[in-house]
Design a protein that fits this description.
The chain has 8 helices and 10 strands. With 236 residues, it is an alpha/beta fold. A 6-stranded parallel sheet has the order 2-1-3-4-5-10, sandwiched between helices. It is elongated, with a radius of gyration of 18 Å. It binds NADP nicotinamide-adenine-dinucleotide phosphate.
């Protein structure tokens, strides 16, 4: 870790935002601004005054506000990490704003190292079974009852990874929203002869927070538009 302490703005101050606040000093980041619905309704907190001296922002807000926040932060010239999910319908617009501004941007549905390794395991399984017509595929995820989007962004990424690996047969997808589950994802292949089950289980939200904090340090001073699953190993 570089010795320089970076100034961090937290956009979204719910469960993830508060955990980022607690862990930031361990990653050489000093939180200097905290925005939530009260001081950032309609993007009201995205001002040059608020962001003077801010090196990087991390957004774990709500799906409806992420894209507007991201465009606003690019306009302010602030490097940004987005962990919030459910906004990818506006990905192209955000990318255009970031590229026009020449800022740095990392987004990802899941910042845990384990899930990013899991994407690669699933990609390999999908590639191996892409032509094996005897095998059907299913996918399942469970999260706590407060999670707003379903299927999860992580599940959408897993399905994307499988398609990119050449698996183009149907995948039966199911989701649960219940209790306090931090996040469980399974991919299964089932034939008459046997089955394969691949499972990732998050134990807590801390892995997500630490991944986002590492990404914040990595993106500082590095213009470009990056998806976390492509660069996570560079942040370690
Ligand atoms: N990528 C990953 O690894 C990962 C991991 C976990 C969660 N997530 C995602 O991260 C997001 C946040 O999760 P969470 O559990 O922390 O949710 P949460 O507890 O509901 O927190 C959401 C926060 O967003 C704030 N907010 C609402 N409107 C805002 C605005 N205009 N500007 C700034 N903040 C605003 C809320 O403010 P108020 O409190 O004032 O309403 C609240 O503080 C979700 O999309 C979730 O799926 C991603």
């Amino acid at each position: 870790m570089s010795a320089q302490t970076l100034k961090l703005a937290l956009v979204g101050y719910g469960r993830m935002g508060q955990m980022l606040d607690r862990l930031a000093p361990e990653h050489g980041l000093e939180v200097v601004l905290r925005l939530d619905q009260h001081n950032n309704a309609g993007g009201a907190g995205l001002t040059p005054e608020n962001f003077r001296g801010v090196d990087v922002a991390i957004d774990f807000s709500v799906p409806e506000t992420v894209a507007d926040n991201a465009v606003g932060l690019a306009g302010l010239g602030v490097a940004t990490v987005v962990g919030a999910t459910g906004w990818l319908d506006r990905l192209e617009e955000v990318q255009a704003a970031v590229e026009q501004a020449g800022t740095g941007f990392v987004y990802g549905a899941n910042f845990s190292i384990g899930v990013n390794a899991f994407y690669r395991v699933v990609a390999e399984a999908a590639k191996l079974l892409a032509q094996a017509e005897d095998y059907d595929c299913w996918a399942w995820e469970a999260h706590h009852k407060r999670k707003l989007d379903a299927p999860s962004g992580t599940m959408l990424r897993l399905l994307g990874v499988m398609r990119e690996s050449g698996y183009d047969r149907p995948i039966d997808v199911a989701t649960n929203r219940v209790g306090w589950v931090p996040g469980t994802h399974e991919i299964g292949f089932d034939s008459e002869a046997d089955s394969i089950e691949l499972r990732h289980v998050a134990r807590s939200r801390e892995g997500f927070a630490r991944g986002a904090l590492r990404a914040a340090r990595w993106i500082h001073g590095r213009p470009g538009f990056f998806e976390f699953s492509k660069i996570w190993d560079q942040t370690l």
